[in-house]
Design brief:
- With 673 residues, this protein is of the alpha+beta class.
- Helices cover 48% and strands 23% of the residues.
- Bound molecules: adenosine-5'-diphosphate (ADP).
- The site of adenosine-5'-diphosphate (ADP) has 20 residues, from helix 12 and helix 14.
Length: 673
Amino acid sequence: MNAAALPFPSGLRRLSSWRRWSLWVLLGVLVLALLVTLVYLAARYEASVAQANVERDVTDALSDMRSALTRNVQELQALQSGHPVKQAWEREAERLLRRHREWVRIEARGPNLELIEEEDSPYRQPVFNQFDRVNTLPEVQQACLTARRLSSHAYARSHFVPQADGLGLELMELCLPEVEVGRLVGFLVATYSLSDLLAAQIGPQMGRSQEISFTEADGTRLAMHGLARRGARVFTAQQLLDLPGNTIVLRMDSWRRSEPDLFPNVLTALVTVMSIALVTVLFMLGHDTRRRLRVEQDLADALAFRKAMEDSLVTGLRARDLHGRTTYVNPAFCQMVGFSPEQLLGRGAPAPYWPPEFAEDYAKRQTVRFTAGRPPREGFESVFMREDGTRFPVLIIEAPLINATGLQTGWMSAVLDISEQRRVEELSRASQERLQATARLATVGEMASLLSHELNQPLAAIASYAHGSMNLLQHGPETAAGDLQVAMVRIAEQADRAGRVIKSVHDFVRRRDQAREAVPPQALVAAVLPLVNLQARKLGVRVEIRVPSGLPLVQCDRTMVEQVLLNLTRNAMQAMDESGVRHPALVVQVRATPVREAGHRWLEFSVADCGPGIPEGVKEQLFTPFFTTKTEGMGLGLSLCRTVVEQHGGHLLFEANPPQGTIFRFTLPAHID
Ligand code: ADP
């Protein structure tokens, strides 16, 4: 990842959301178009099936009709040839008429069409009773002329005959020529009722929603059968029934309720189910996409937040893969080392910010750290080099870089530039040292008066011994040899004593190396004891030292700790002196604290007095530098004491020492072998 990469710029996000929406709309329109097309095709298919059915039905009806007409002609021919006797003809004709409802009348006519025999259908009133048959003769003539010409049966054009009930019948004449030995002897004329023809021949096979009719070529309806259940949609098929002498159209209408039916067939049902499934899938997809969008938005926000955080950090961040190649740097890191991200990314050891003189060591250190696994949490110090070649100290804290699947992909380091911190530390250390030296000298200044008081005694003793010796010498040295020797020994003793006093001050003031070492607590107390005793004697204070044997060694800078002990004892004695306590006593005690953590032991030093205690107003400012209640005090003692103790990791506290006085306690770490 590049530090300069900006995730999801807002303009791009707007554009992509616009495009996503338009894609969704397009998809929706396409699906809708697909569904409409499917439904339309299904309806069309359904219509074509219905149409094909009607076509088939009309073809079947036509062929039925043809064969029925042919059979009828044959039956009529049988009547012609077989029954010349009048009664027999009438009987036979009546039998035929009973069998064939489609005929309304059968006539036998002579060669000039003169009527010889006639028989009407028993199923209806005679059709021609009221009207003169003459009116219909042209059709009969036409049929018989054609029959004569063809020497076979022939039909005439249909004609309408009104009936008494106000309705009428569409009739069609059939004429069969009667030929005997090559000579025309007469005609047999049968009159068809077209509507009865339809009912008799096709009616039984027809469905309830079908209607069959005879029409003329121009569509004029002649006769029909079947009262169809009307629907919204009609399917029509027609076929030509070409008869000798006449041609009529057989037409069939099939009605459907509505179009399209909701579930008219399996195909439509299937299409509907698939459409519902498709819409459901689309809906789920949309839902999923919306959720993804939300997550994407959250992720973009999180990334933007992370980016802002990284950019505002003053801590340098650097990520390296398992081979030590830099995979990420933040702006603070680039600023720290003065290299651009391009100069750093993808670079393995040696990194451009490694000082060349340490490069080898760093490479080794890196290998060791990477193979060791978990680096120390508190980090380690190192030195980096800026692009201009200047070196600067850094604190590096490393942690393993774990990816989303829990695998370690590298190392993440936080790098702190500690050059400024170092400079401040150096400054404070120097000023601290100066302050300590000053404080020590101030202590010495205070002690000058003690010294003069303490040295007074041996010096006065030496002076009086010297005077005595001189007197002895004047009165005769031979006799006073023994006394002189005693006096000299005394002088030497007193001079020794004065020398020890001076040495104790000198030892304390002499600057020693500052180093932590393991020191027995007894030694620390013993080192300050001569100076404590000096002051105690002057002020008449009883000093009690309680340092049990068997205590562990103290890990400390002994000069500093001696200074602390001296400051506390001096403060205690001064406080008792100022308040005029009757029997001033000072208790210096050392004890080991109970073991808290495995391997960590502490020693507690305490200095107790029976002075006036510390007033409330003074308590808050006690450790403030230069705070003092004494006219000649500097106010540095306690603040220095606390700094020293805290530098050792310990605490300096004070509390009341009932019934009267104060106890100052401080802790120091015990030495661990
Ligand atoms: P200084 O001794 O030069 O005044 P310190 O920092 O050592 O400076 O002490 C600050 C002040 O704390 C003293 O002036 C004194 O008022 C008070 N103080 C210190 N030790 C004691 C004590 N044992 N009893 C009462 N007051 C004390």
